[in-house]
Amino acid sequence: NSTGLKATAGRYGGTYAHPDIAFEFGMWISAEFKIYLIKEFQRLKEDENNRLKLEWNLQRMLTKVNYHIHTDAIKENLIPSELTKYQINFVYANEADMLNMALFGMTAKQWRETNIKTEGNIRDAATIEQLVVLSNMESINAVLIHQGLPQSQRLIQLNKIAISQMKSLLANSSISKLK
To answer: DSSP letter at 17?
Structure first.
């Protein structure tokens, strides 16, 4: 009557063990089995790590899909012709922070200050759902820029869109299969 072991007498009977107990017994009996089990575990962990790297690359690629559309809209509509390189970079960063504020509720600088020990940036730490929404928001923001909406109005609209899309994506079970 022990837990983890079951012995059945008679025809078709046998001794059955919990997998953990069976593995331990097998490793005790055979060094070859122990090495095989360790190597197989290492292979599975390596496969898992490769899958996670692929998922991370997919997440980052999703955010880059509409990047050029977004930056072209900024360049064509928001950057005056007589700005220095530093001032131009400030305009791009300001727009990126507006998108971060609409989706994450904070700027990249605020995120860095609250996540000092976290490696990477706010977008590196984002979930796949957040990156999908961010990619969509870049495209939508490009349209709103072309329409001439001021940043304050774009922020309000993009925040509403972010909330709506996040609710939709989080409720969608097919997105969880990508993870």
So the answer is: E
Per DSSP, 23 falls in state H
Q: Exposure of 132 by Cβ count < 10 A (0-12 exposed, 13-18 middle, 19+ buried)?
A: buried
Q: Does residue 16 sit in the same domain as residue 88? A: no
pTM of the predicted structure, to 2 decimals = 0.60
What is residue 106's DSSP assignment? S
pLDDT tens string 44-66: 998 888 777 776 677 667 667 66
Q: What are phi and psi for residue 16, nearest 5 degrees? A: -120, 140
151 neighbors 104 (Cβ within 8 angstroms): no
Q: What are φ and ψ of residue 8, in 5° steps?
A: -120, 125
32 and 70 part of one domain: no
Enclosing domain of residue 26: 5-44
Listing DSSP states for 55-94 in one string gives HHHHHHHHHHTTHHHHHHHHHHHT--TT--HHHHHHHHHH
Q: Where are the alpha helices (DSSP H) in 105-150?
A: 108-114, 128-146
- Is 60 part of any domain? no
Nearby residues of 97 by Cβ (< 8 Å), 6 or more positions away: 107, 108, 109
